[in-house]
Predict the structure.
Amino acid sequence: MTTAVDAASGEEQLVVFDLAAEAYGVDIGAVREIIRMQDITKVPGAPSVVEGIINLRGNVIPVVDLRRRFGLEVVDRDKDNRIVVVDIGGQDIGVVVDAVNEVLRIASDSVEPPSSVITTADSVYLLGIVKLEGRLVILLDIEKVLTENEKASLTGAAVANAHVEAAD
């Protein structure tokens, strides 16, 4: 993962968001923008983690529900939910989170590698745990949150739907 590290100070900047009462962080360099929830168009045949697609200023963006991706309970949305638009493999993808809390500067040495007790072959997206005063933030490699098959199907769904919308 390429991180927005200030080489002189050994700091990284993270966008921190909530998901099922836990704090997660992603490198700010991968985040394009953070938007309020909006209507999401369902796409038939999309992978189960895909909520659908949105039209963001004329661009069709696939949207992934991170609760589903991580096997967490799916709950009703509220006013705090956000879509974090991130760059995954050169494609903008929206990820639904419970709330976005802050942009945080952390010292690179405050990141502990994930314990082998909590990681599996399916958790390659876990970069580490950020230790802060009184709390922990789970650091994600957003590039690895989706499998290669999921990324490919998202690209196909977005392109197919863009052609349909253009024909209307």
